[in-house]
Amino acid sequence: MDYLNDLNPEQKKAVEHTEGPLMILAGAGSGKTRVLTYRIAHLINLGVDPFKIMALTFTNKAAKEMKERITRLIGSNESMNVWMGTFHSVFAKILRSEADKLGYPSNFTIYDTDDSKSLIKSIIKELNLDDKVYKPNLVLGRISSAKNNLLSAEEYNKNTSIQSEDQQSKKPLIGKIYSLYVKRCFRAGAMDFDDLLYQTNILLRDFPEVLYKYQDRFEFILVDEFQDTNFSQYTIVKKICARRENICVVGDDAQSIYAFRGANIQNILNFKRDYPDVKTYKLEQNYRSTKTIVQAANSLISKNKNQFKKEVWTQNDSGKNIALFKTTTDNQEGWLVANQIFDTKINQQSFNKDFAILYRTNAQSRAIEEALRKKNIAYRIYGGLSFYKRKEIKDVLAYFRLSLNPKDDEAIKRVINYPKRGIGKTSIEKIALTANEKSKSIWEVISTESLQEVAINNGAKKKIEDFVHIIELFVAQTKTMQASDVGHQIASSSGVLKDLYTDKTPEGLSRHENIQELLNGLKDFEEQKKAQGEELVLLESYMQEISLLTDNIEQDNQELEDSVSLMTIHAAKGLEFPYVFIVGLEENLFPSQLSIYDRNQLEEERRLFYVALTRAEKQLFLSYADTRYRWGKLVVNTPSRFIEEIDPKYIDEKFSKAQTRSNTTEFKTQTPLFGKGYQKRKLTKVAPSQPSSIHTDSTEQIYVGSSVKHQKFGKGKVVHIEGQPHNKKATVYFEGAAGKRQLLLKYAKLEVLT
DNA sequence: CTGTCCTCACTTTTT
DNA sequence: GTGAGGACAG
Fold it and tell me: Which of A176, A183, A330, A710 is most buried as measured by Cβ atoms within 10 A of its Cβ?
């Protein structure tokens, strides 16, 4: 148990507390993830079956990082079996295996926010409501928060206080939209993001035997970022751990930044109420940042009224003061950041990857990007327009979805006339009308005799029938063919590839490339599964894997490796960088104008700033601009109130007048050159980046003649190796029934026997 | 039914 | 400044 020596006394106590409820209040940089990972490793070392441990995180990034760290600690074989992932992905998995109980198909579609919004739009239209009053975003928000508070549509309509709220805001029919929305999702065999949690609650509530099963299966539950859980999530966890109460939650109220989405800091308070004999440990020693950063952050967060008492401290050096830059325009701000990075790199001998630039909204990245490009500083944008959100990718994925679940109305609406087939708006509307009358999905209308009852001309009917035949073919193929083959087939037979191929504009080429990239990712996925011993890899399993991915997954590419990170503060949570720039510190931007009239919302913004400050290890740079382009208009700003809330003894104000004049003019003349950056944007790959350094290294130790062991196939001998380093393919003869196999080493996780 | 031009809303954050 | 969606002509 040497690893316990890596921990400080408080951390160690938390790790060694195995049975019974446990709450860890962990300040920023206090080794929260370390405690979680060590605790899981410790449980396994004590003989707990990894299958019986469930570890829930909030984001894919956090899940991925924890997986990697556990693998490093205890090896992949054990860690693979821990149920670890985001709330949404873990419960999606459970819902798929229990779907029939809820009347859903096990291959239900997951609607993303765009799907939900588009469905809501069509419902609003059908009800002849004004979408200026019933703004789809707002309606979706109401429905979402209802679900996250476990209110069904029926309950929503019965609840007098909600109804009077909706009356008062002159939107009395939101409840009706909610009911219809639920009906449509069900009809389409689809769940939205909130359903993944809501329906899990229903499942555990209405099927005691199912609840019992999972209570029995999960002996230990760990929840990361507990302050960000909403009521729905908390209820699931509470139910599953009710029998043993082996629940460990880790959180920091000072870093709660998702209240806007229904997260409830009260959950931390409730926790003490629900588990009176809970053991609480506070991790207050910060290992990440300098004294200056820690104390500056403390001085800021002390302005919040709602918080737990906690004193974060550090033994680290004092470090440099925070640098505060005032600039005149957003472009100048970008330029200043780029220059500062350039200088710091030389003075401190640091790398691009040591820097992060954090902002409140994604739109702010533009000015920064231009400046970095001009200075030739490599950068990477996290979040923003993710690969899966691109139009062309969503089109192909809609065909994939349709081939797996033809009842998916949102997918059908997306592609029934893309590429152009001469099926116009009027026809689709008439079909949708018939579908609603019969309470059937669009597919059930167009693929049966019901189509004859729709009042459209025969030409259009013929075109629709052709479309149905294509999809029917795809449906059949997805059941028997390898995922990558079906993928190619669908991309070309649907006409999508051809449509983009004929488009020779740079955008068209880039879209075509993106689809190739998607198909490559699909192939990679298939190879990976085959290496794990699966014979037939279906498209279905791929779609289940990616439907909850919104991040861009990192590409293992040397060039991208050393780059400056650009991201929103929300996306930066849980990460750390030696040098951190926080830009756009202006009133109405940060804090956002939507939050300044409400104490709670303002405090959330302040916590967000706290999160930003505490990302830094060595030094912080803050900046604001007097004017900034927003919505194409020049806006004049005053500095953010948050700047003054940091104890001024930690801040050095910098004005750079000399640089201001010469460089803004240079900037203006050159800006147009960088107007179109579309095709230069990075391409991201779909390949799940399982291989950590451990695996990549070990593949280099496999030679012809090596004796190896495979998780599924057992022992074997390597007879042939081909391919590039880090991407080698080996032919292996296995002793058992598996016989001769070709495996990609980077996925196969072969153990070398000596 | 399709293509083009115009208007308008969009900027809070994620699964 | 951009992209989605509506109005209108062909």
Answer: A330
Write out the two tokens for A478: 């997805």
Does the bond joining A419 to the residue before it have cis omega, within 30 degrees of 0?
Answer: yes
Do A555 and A684 contact (CB within 8 A), yes or no? yes
**DSSP H or E stretch at residue A280:** strand A279-283
Which tokens sit at A120? 């809501």
Quick one: tokens of A721? 């190796």
A391 in contact with nucleic chain C (CB within 7 A): yes
Which nucleotide across the nucleic acid strands is nearest to A136, CA versus C1'? B9
Alpha carbon A495 to chain centroid distance? 30
Catalytic residue IDs of A: 32-33, 224-225, 255, 615
Secondary element (H or E) of residue A156: helix A153-158
pTM equals 0.85
* E-state strands within A476-630: 564-568, 577-582, 616-625, 627-630
Q: Residues with Cβ < 8 Å from A526, sequence gap 6 or more?
A: A482, A483, A484, A537, A542
Residue A588 Cβ < 7 Å to strand B: no
Q: Tell me: pLDDT of A434 over 70.
A: yes
**C-alpha to C-alpha distance for A454 and A482, rounded to whole angstroms:** 37
Q: Which amino acid is at A409?
A: D
E-assigned strand segments in A594-664:
616-625, 627-630, 633-636, 651-655
pLDDT band at residue A722 under the 50/70/90 scheme: low
Q: Which residue is nearest to nucleotide C1 (CA to C1')?
A: A632
Contact between A204 and A239 under an 8 Å Cβ cutoff? The reply is: yes
